[in-house]
# Entry
Amino acid sequence: MDCHCEERSDKAIRMVCHCEERNDEAISKVGKLMLWLYNLIYPKERYIWAQVRILHETDKAILVEHGMKIWIPKSRIHGIRLRNNTFEIYVKESTVA
# Structure
């Protein structure tokens, strides 16, 4: 395919070929599609605020009740807040689900 766009040889001003712009747009669309497919196949782990009742605490873990009693290591808890007299912890969704 021959391009009929003009190019200037000036160092300060250079015209970009319109065909190259179209190719860049197509590549960016393909890149977005590939990223969307990757995120669909390998989803990122989501973090959520979960309302829990704290039953017991040790140096390394907390026993909470969120439908069932589970021990959650403190290293997996990324935040704690008190809201309306209930504790909420910020953890990965798979930790409490």
User: Anything to note?
Assistant: The beta strands are 47-57, 61-65, 69-73, 80-83, 86-92. Residues 5 and 13 are 15 Å apart (CA to CA).
